[in-house]
Design goal:
This protein is mainly α. The protein has a single domain, classed as NCX, central ion-binding region (A middle domain of Talin 1, Up-down Bundle), CATH 1.20.1420. Helix content is 77%, strand content 1%. It has a two-stranded antiparallel ribbon. Helix 4 packs parallel to helix 12, helix 5 crosses helix 10 and helix 7 packs antiparallel against helix 12. The longest helix is centred in the middle third of the chain and has 33 residues. The protein is globular.
Length: 355
């Protein structure tokens, strides 16, 4: 059995203290903005624990089981927040958070990785085959999400049956992509997928990792419930829209841990892994979380959540897919490309603040 490396303290470990603080803040009815912030920080800490536990487990199971774990727990907190938000009737916020997660993982996460990696290395290379497959999948996602919106614009009526059909197709495509990357063409990805993890994983046993994963998800589910309950007064107190809260605030809170991991890999000159983290997370949201939410929405709200998005959301998705396709072309990146991606994300966030 490989020797365990001593775990080095991570700054996000200290954020776990915000779990009890968020409970006190909520039940003592503190200011809604303060409650939202401390609950959000607690969720960031719990997301980090989930990432750590999943990483420990992934090193000791088959690649297939590892992929399923990533699909199930990689965006668990975001999925739980969406479920509680649907029950509260915050459908616009849920749809915006899904779009926000796709955009933030492709533009901001990869942009920050390229920028900070580029500050250390003049140029960095990455696997064009892996990036090309992911960018093509993202284009399929955009097609699937745009068509129901176009139908709504042309016919002036929602199409829940169409949203269900599109969700089913997207889910099937996701399963086929797992078969491709882990079965028929795994040789294209084996180097990056089997590369050793950085020496920051906790020295947990497999059993301890499973227990911590379940505990973190359990506590995270309750924190997600608290966060959703603080969103409505937050929107009222600060004059924010559901779309801005979902696309920017919720998407950012639930993806901070992945951003830190991706930047860490970039600083170690493993830009392929950084891109894979960003693209895989975006595709898991679009091809796994979104279809499941559409299928569950009827049971949660009595109505099927449609995949109809506003023009700004559609433009943001199309631009994100185009940029991802451009990035995969040459297999080389530098800090300026990272700064450009970050600027595009900031422009989109600014636009959603004002609409």
């Amino acid at each position: 059995m490989p020797r365990q490396t001593a775990y080095r303290f991570h700054i996000l470990d200290s954020f776990l203290v915000f779990v009890p603080i968020s409970l006190f803040s909520y039940y003592l009815e503190f200011n809604s903005v303060f409650s939202f912030i401390v609950t959000g920080v607690a969720i960031v800490a719990l997301s980090h624990v989930i990432v750590e536990a999943t990483g420990v487990i992934a090193q000791r199971v088959s690649s297939t089981v590892s992929a399923l774990l990533n699909a199930t727990f990689g965006n668990a907190i975001e999925f739980l927040i969406a479920v509680f938000a649907l029950r509260q009737g915050l459908v616009d916020m849920v749809k915006a958070s899904m779009v926000g997660s796709i955009i933030i993982n492709v533009l901001l996460l990869i942009g920050l990785s390229m920028f900070f990696g580029g500050l250390k290395y003049k140029e960095q290379s990455f696997n064009k085959d892996s990036a090309g497959v992911s960018s093509t999948m993202l284009i399929i996602v955009v097609v699937g999400l745009v068509l129901p919106s176009m139908y709504d614009m042309v016919q002036s009526k929602p199409a829940p049956a169409m949203s269900l059909a599109v969700s089913t197709v997207l889910g099937i495509v996701y399963l086929l992509s797992l078969l491709y990357t882990l079965g028929t063409h795994k040789h294209l990805f084996v180097v990056e997928r089997e590369a050793p993890s950085p020496p920051t994983h906790r020295p947990w046993s497999l059993r301890a990792a499973f227990i911590m994963l379940l505990v973190a998800v359990g506590v995270g589910s309750y924190e997600s419930y608290l966060l959703v309950n603080t969103v409505t007064p937050l929107i009222g107190d600060m004059g924010l829209t559901q779309r801005f809260v979902g696309l920017v605030l919720i998407a950012l809170l639930t993806n901070i841990s992945e951003h830190i991991s991706a930047i860490s890999f970039a600083r170690k000159n493993n830009m392929t892994m950084s891109l894979e983290i960003g693209m895989s997370s975006a595709l898991q949201i679009a091809l796994f979380v979104v279809p499941v939410l559409v299928l569950l929405s009827t049971a949660l709200t009595g109505n099927t959540m449609d995949l109809v998005f506003g023009p700004f959301s559609l433009v943001a998705l199309v631009m994100t897919a185009m940029i991802a396709n451009y990035l995969s072309a040459d297999g080389i990146c530098h800090w300026l490309e990272g700064a450009q991606l970050i600027s595009v994300y900031l422009l989109i966030a600014i636009a959603f603040y004002f609409i």
